[in-house]
Amino acid sequence: MKIIVTGSLGPISRPLTQLLVQQGQSVTVISSNASKQKAIEDLGANAAIGSLKDVAFLTNIFTGSDAIYLMEPTVNFSDTTIDIYEHYRQFARVYVQAIRQSCVKRIVHLSSIGGHTENGNGMLKFHHYVEQILKELPAEVAITTLRPVSFYSNILAFVPMAKSQNAIITDYKSLHKEPWASPLDIADVIAEEIVKPFEGRRVRYIASDEVTSDELVVALSEAIGKPDLKWVTVPAEVLQKRFIELGMNPQGVEGLIALNAAKQAGTLYEDYYQHRPVLGKVKIKDFAKDFAKLYNQQ
Questions:
Q1: Of 9, 10, 109, 91, which is closest to residue 55 (Cα–Cα)?
Q2: If we measure between CA atoms, which residue out of 159, 161, 152, 157 comes closest to residue 297?
Q3: Each residue of 244-253: pLDDT tens digit?
Q4: What does the alpha-carbon distance between residue 99 and residue 285 come to, in Å, rounded to a whole number?
Q5: How high does pLDDT run on average in the chain?
Q6: pLDDT number for residue 77
Q7: What pTM value is reported for the model?
Q8: pLDDT at 298
Q9: Phi and psi for 221 in degrees, rounded to 5?
């Protein structure tokens, strides 16, 4: 199969490319960074250097392919001027134009938990907006929508705090098991889905492990050798004020606070638990080793 991979050599696209090449697929990886070309080719894939906002470029690359893996690059949350939701809508609109013009019939799209609605999911509603725009594609374009849960890598943001204050400090605490996902497990699912014959529209959730906040802290504390590491909650308005002081995008901060409220209330996970997936292979104790590595470097 001729497969197009977006996402350059990111934490999902790199292992995905490796898996597809190992399968014997013809893989083209799109990157906006010309310096990534050799690294892409060293994996056994073709490199297509250009912008995901360029309809003509994408149409040319998409044409003749059997399937495409689509993802939207993350926004810069330090840019206080950007409209985060419009940022994602723009990528979706460009994708739709390029897919229509290239006549591709099979899409695997990386969305997220919360993508099923624009309510009760905080900033993740932008995934819902993208899903709705992609649904405008003709019915003969098969779309598998993947909804992974929160990435383990998000936890790495707590490393400086754990180092300086021996605590993970945020405005929520999960007393029930909260799902987390590894990019490696996500790549495995994409590699499976993209070569699978399919028609119509389908959704699949992805998760690697499920743990409470206390269980997460235990795993991290064991990995870093700090048994007194704690999970500490603060009022949402305190966290929001701190993020604004750090120069984060106000729209993003508002969305993050609402997202944490949805985690606390459990509403974020309602659809997930109605379509609960088989958990992947990378468990929280495996990720804790990565946390410890970064912790020890700082």
A1: 91
A2: 159
A3: 999 999 999 9
A4: 40
A5: 96
A6: 85
A7: 0.96
A8: 82
A9: -65, -35
Angstrom distance (rounded) from CA 298 to CA 290:
13
DSSP the chain: -EEEE-STT-TTHHHHHHHHHHTT-EEEEEES-GGGHHHHHHTT-EEEES-TT-HHHHHHHHTT-SEEEE--PPP-TT-TT--HHHHHHHHHHHHHHHHHHHT--EEEEE--TTTT-SSSSGGGHHHHHHHHHHTTS-TTSEEEEEEE-EEGGGGGGGHHHHHHHSEEEES---SS-EEEE-HHHHHHHHHHHHTS---SEEEEEE-SEEE-HHHHHHHHHHHHT-TT-EEEE--HHHHHHHHHHTT--HHHHHHHHHHHHHHHHTGGGHHHHHTPPPP-S--HHHHHHHHHHHHHH-
**Residue 78 — pLDDT band, cuts 50, 70, 90?**
confident
Reported as a pLDDT band with limits 50, 70 and 90, residue 281 is very high
β-partners of residue 169 are 232
Task: Name every residue whose Cβ is closer than 8 Å to that of residue 293 and which is 6 or more positions away in sequence.
Answer: none
Res. 1: pLDDT tops 90: yes
Work out the average pLDDT over 145-162: 96
Tokens linked to 97 = 């134009």
Domains and CATH numbers, the chain: 2-150+181-207 (3.40.50.720)
